[in-house]
Write a sequence for this structure.
């Protein structure tokens, strides 16, 4: 066998065994992908699994998902498809005019094409009001803005031509019911409406600066319903600056596309901040029930620095907080409740409950909170 053939065989064998070698030797994947993690654990060998074929299937999945150059290969495919065919491999991402990027559910929310019945919204608001009274804890509903409703002029033409549109239908339904039933709420959608920089061009969540303003506005709203002895710490703004280099989540859609290129961004505002010094015993303990729009607030220290040992129940499914050992565990697993009375007892351990949703998630808001147990 020729020397060149031997070298070729060795190279092929190394590539085929790259997932195992990288796992054993601890190599890091170059250019890892953004988004949901796809790395899986190496399969455990057993003769039963080998005989049934389960082990072979697991090895195939492991090799395909843990391939050392997988990120580079996927980025290359994504770049070619995006450049030549305007095809995007990220789930639900659509492009509007002038290169503005959206997630589809935010476009549907802006056009009122995602609505549920007003009776359903009324029932959900009533349920929240009753739970607040039975638990003896004030609730604050926060209506966060959505990118589609703010950049209506950049929405894709094919969506603007759809029938059955009713602008911001779900937002209007929730607002009407909250006012009618007298539940405390904070309308950040209206507050930010006149500022076109609330959303970055290549991101889906509200801008980093808007998150700071939202933290302080929510704190101000809570002051009106909390005892005078409790006061949240404010996130103080030391200075501001402008930059075309995106920070935080300001280009999260672009990152999710996993391209080689850097899509040009518009200049954005950023704050240098610090938390106001308020003694821990004076800060309230709150429970936040929210979608991903709360992550920016949480990551800025909301639960520990702004409040006292508070919790964030992400979509009412996974619990996060400074004192939570197993991040992402269910509320039932963390607090051990199994009855409605036990659930209400857990809620009553907080000084206030904040329920936050962007307009795109209003059809399923408040994420079945209050129905955790029957």
């Amino acid at each position: 066998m020729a020397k060149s053939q031997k070298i070729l065989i060795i190279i092929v064998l190394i590539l085929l065994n790259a997932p195992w070698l990288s796992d054993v030797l601890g190599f890091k994947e170059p250019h890892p992908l953004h988004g949901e993690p796809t790395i899986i654990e190496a399969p455990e060998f057993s003769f039963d699994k080998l005989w049934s074929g389960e082990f072979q299937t697991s090895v195939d999945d492991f090799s395909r998902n843990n391939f050392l150059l997988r990120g580079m290969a996927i980025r290359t495919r994504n770049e070619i498809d995006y450049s030549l065919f305007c095809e995007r491999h990220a789930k639900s991402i659509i492009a509007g005019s002038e290169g503005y990027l959206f997630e589809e559910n935010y476009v549907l929310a802006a056009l009122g094409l995602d609505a549920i019945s007003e009776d359903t919204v009324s029932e959900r608001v009533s349920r929240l009001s009753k739970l607040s009274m039975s638990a003896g804890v004030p609730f604050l509903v926060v209506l966060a803005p959505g990118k589609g409703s703010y950049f209506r002029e950049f929405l894709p033409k094919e969506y603007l031509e759809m029938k059955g549109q009713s602008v911001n239908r779900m937002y209007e339904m929730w607002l009407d019911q909250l006012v009618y039933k007298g539940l405390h709420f904070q309308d950040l959608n209206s507050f930010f409406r006149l500022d076109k920089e609330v959303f970055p061009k290549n991101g889906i969540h509200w801008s980093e600066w808007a998150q700071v303003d939202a933290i302080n506005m929510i704190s101000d709203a809570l002051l009106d319903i909390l005892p005078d002895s409790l006061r949240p710490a404010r996130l103080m703004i030391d200075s501001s600056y402008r930059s075309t280099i995106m920070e935080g989540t300001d280009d999260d859609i672009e990152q999710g596309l996993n391209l080689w290129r850097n899509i040009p961004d518009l200049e954005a505002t950023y704050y240098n901040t610090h938390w106001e010094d308020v003694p821990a015993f004076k800060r309230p303990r709150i429970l936040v029930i929210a979608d991903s729009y709360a992550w920016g607030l949480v990551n800025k220290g909301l639960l520990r620095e702004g409040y006292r040992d508070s919790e964030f129940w992400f979509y009412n499914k996974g619990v996060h907080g400074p004192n939570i050992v197993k991040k992402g565990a269910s509320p039932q697993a963390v607090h051990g409740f199994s009855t409605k009375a036990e659930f209400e007892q857990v809620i009553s351990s907080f000084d206030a409950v904040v329920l936050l949703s962007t307009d795109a998630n209003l059809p399923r808001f408040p994420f079945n909170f209050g129905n955790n147990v029957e």
User: Anything to note?
Assistant: Strands lie at 93-95, 101-103, 139-144, 185-187, 235-243, 268-275, 286-290, 311-314, 318-320, 352-358. DSSP finds 17 helices and ten strands in the chain. The mean pLDDT is 89.
